Structure formats: structure tokens, C-alpha cells
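Anyone up for a design puzzle?
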């Protein structure tokens, strides 16, 4: 009983905070300079955890503020520590969406997927969900299911089906009787532990790169979505909940010059632009609380509709490069993220 009281107290407190701050967060993460890069245009103020400054080509400086700013030296643990309360709220019945947005090569996949030595948000999240489920097992029974899909050129592909020798099954979004968006035919794997999850995530990454000559190139041009469905049953009250957590590694946001690309590449980049701006439009409509939210403008936003808005929680990682050669794209990403958050950047703090 005490536990339940604590739970409801925590939920109340949390809701008050959410009410106060809105339920959209933007975190910025700047990757380290690479060996062949020498000049950083991004600076951090040691006393301000949520600010960064960018030196523009005319030497002016622009100040950007987010809910948190991660620096090149911040590791995967530091990132996850801030992400934890948002992802685990799926166990309390909330729908949650997390995105990694940015130019190719800025660390979107590193943040979400990570490497076997430095695992990212996806794996750490599932690990934590299993841990908490066990901890609560005398009061709550949870069942976890995982799906993984890719949106490429506005087509949906199941990443948990080894389809190299099979024709690709056409997947479409349908509205269920409860009004939620479903993808009939998509594999939903029940998962019981983290080892199994790592196997599934690796299968998904492998399937994602099949059929392309260059795995990295292909993956930078598609959105990769990991969906965790949580079915909860309160063993005391009998109340059941179903909630979803989406962990999304978006396609690279860089603009491709018309001259550089052939027909297919141009088509791809138009699809990417369209879906990323649709995502920006949806989140900024939610942030500004306008009545019409244009979910139907892309497959990406349509599929996520039930997990964006309402009392769902949204977190966007805007990933940036500190390298001077990437300045244009860095500014574009930071401006996009500021627009999404509904807050424009201000002038730089005066240098002392
Ligand atoms: P993206 O998914 O945005 O295209 P990647 O995640 O593939 O970018 O990152 C590009 C490269 O930079 C990878 O080799 C990755 O391991 C490395 N990298 C990115 N961010 C970091 C970081 N914060 N710390 C260490 N290495 C990073």
C-alpha cells in the first residue's frame, strides 16, 4: 500500500513538473573533433549546463539554449542518466518518443544504438525496463514486446524479418478500433531479457543494411524506428495499461545540392526533407498547442501519431559536429531544434 501511495505521489509530482515545463524536451549532443579535424566552432560555458555558443563565419557568435547540452567529453552513461526518467515513464503507462536528429556523421546512431563497448540509449533503456519490472514484480506484471522498422522513401520495412531471399512484404499504417495507429503484419517479438534484446537489435541493424552497397550510406538515408510495447497489469487493482516507447534514429538532415546528385538520390533527399520538416511541424504545433497537428503529412509522423502529443513525452537529441567545415549544417540543425522547441536563439552572451 505504501508503495502504491508513493507511486501516485511521484506521478502527481511528475505531472506537475510536466505541466509546468511542457512535455517536449530537446537535448543537444556535440560529438568530439576527429583526428583530422582541428578547429571547433562550438564552445561551452562551464557554469551553464544548457547553453552553447557557435562562432559563425563572420566571427559573430550565436547562443543556443536547450533543456540540456552534452559536450564531447560526456559519455553514454551521462547521456542515459538524463534520459532515464523519460524512458522509464513508459512503465507508468505513458507513451514516449525519442528522436536523434542531425547531419550524417554527428553521432545519431552512436547515441541511440551505440557500440558493443559503449552501448547507447536503446539497449540501456531495455536493460532498465527489465530491471524495474523485476523490482516491481510483487505489484505489477509487465510484458515487453519489441518491433523494429525502417522508413525509406515513404515505404515501411520490417527489420525483424530476414528478407534477403523473400519479396519485401508491403506494410501500411492502419487505424485500430481504439483509434491508435498500427502496422498490421509487423513482427512484435516478446522479450524476456537483455541478451535476447541485443540479438534482436543486431538482427535489425543487419537487415537494415542488406540490399545496399554501402551500409552506412543506406542507413543515413532512412529512418530507423525501434518500438517497445509495454503491457502492464496491476496485481492489486487489476488495472491494465498498454503503452509504447519509440526510439528513433532519423535519416541524415543534411541538404544535398541538386547538382551533386542523380535522380534516385534527389528523390531520396526530397523524401527525407519532407518527412523531417513534417516532424518539425508536428512537434512545433504540439509545443505551441495549436489545435491542428499535421500528423498525416509523412509516414514517419503518421506512424508515431499515438505517441506524439496529448500527455505523451517527447525528447529530441539534436546531434552536432564541432568541426568548422560542418558549420552550415550545425547552424541548420540548431535552428531546427530551437524552432521545434518553440524558442528562438538569442544574441551571444557578451565576452568578458
Ligand atoms: P550518424 O548516425 O549521425 O551518421 P554515427 O553515429 O555513425 O553518426 O557517428 C559517426 C562516427 O563518429 C562513428 O564512428 C561514431 O562511433 C563516432 N562518434 C559519434 N559520436 C561520438 C561520441 N560522442 N563519442 C565518440 N565517438 C562518436
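Challenge accepted. My sequence:
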Amino acid at each position: 500500500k505504501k508503495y502504491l501511495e508513493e507511486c501516485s505521489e511521484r506521478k502527481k509530482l511528475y505531472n506537475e513538473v510536466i505541466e509546468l515545463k511542457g512535455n517536449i524536451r530537446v537535448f543537444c549532443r556535440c560529438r568530439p573533433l576527429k583526428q583530422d579535424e582541428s578547429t571547433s566552432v562550438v564552445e561551452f560555458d562551464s557554469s551553464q549546463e544548457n547553453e552553447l555558443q557557435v562562432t559563425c563565419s563572420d566571427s559573430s557568435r550565436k547562443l543556443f539554449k536547450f533543456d540540456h547540452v552534452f559536450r564531447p567529453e560526456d559519455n553514454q552513461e551521462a547521456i542515459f542518466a538524463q534520459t532515464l526518467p523519460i524512458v522509464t515513464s513508459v512503465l507508468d503507462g505513458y507513451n514516449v518518443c525519442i528522436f536523434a536528429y542531425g547531419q550524417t556523421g554527428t553521432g545519431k546512431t552512436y547515441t541511440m544504438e551505440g557500440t558493443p563497448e559503449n552501448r547507447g540509449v536503446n539497449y540501456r533503456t531495455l536493460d532498465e525496463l527489465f530491471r524495474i519490472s523485476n523490482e516491481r514484480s510483487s505489484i505489477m506484471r509487465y510484458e515487453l514486446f519489441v518491433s523494429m522498422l525502417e522508413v525509406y522513401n515513404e515505404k515501411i520495412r520490417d527489420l525483424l524479418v530476414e528478407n534477403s531471399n523473400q519479396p519485401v512484404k508491403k506494410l501500411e499504417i492502419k487505424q485500430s478500433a481504439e483509434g491508435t495507429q498500427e502496422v498490421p503484419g509487423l513482427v512484435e517479438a516478446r522479450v524476456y531479457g537483455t541478451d535476447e534484446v541485443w540479438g534482436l537489435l543486431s538482427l535489425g541493424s543487419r537487415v537494415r543494411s542488406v540490399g545496399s552497397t554501402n551500409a552506412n550510406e543506406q542507413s543515413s538515408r532512412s529512418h530507423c524506428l525501434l518500438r517497445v510495447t509495454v503491457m502492464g497489469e496491476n496485481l492489486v487493482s487489476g488495472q491494465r495499461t498498454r503503452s509504447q516507447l519509440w526510439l528513433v534514429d532519423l535519416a541524415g538532415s543534411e541538404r544535398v545540392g541538386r547538382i551533386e546528385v542523380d535522380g534516385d538520390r534527389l528523390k531520396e533527399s526530397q523524401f527525407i526533407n519532407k518527412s523531417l520538416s513534417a516532424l518539425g511541424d508536428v512537434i512545433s504545433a504540439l509545443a505551441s498547442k495549436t489545435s491542428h497537428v499535421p500528423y498525416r503529412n509523412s509516414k514517419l509522423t503518421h506512424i508515431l501519431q499515438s505517441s506524439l502529443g496529448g500527455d505523451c513525452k517527447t525528447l529530441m537529441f539534436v546531434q552536432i559536429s564541432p568541426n568548422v567545415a560542418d558549420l552550415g549544417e550545425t547552424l541548420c540543425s540548431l535552428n531546427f531544434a530551437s524552432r521545434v522547441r518553440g524558442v528562438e536563439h538569442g544574441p551571444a552572451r557578451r565576452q568578458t
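A detail worth pointing out: The first helix runs from residue 2 to 21.
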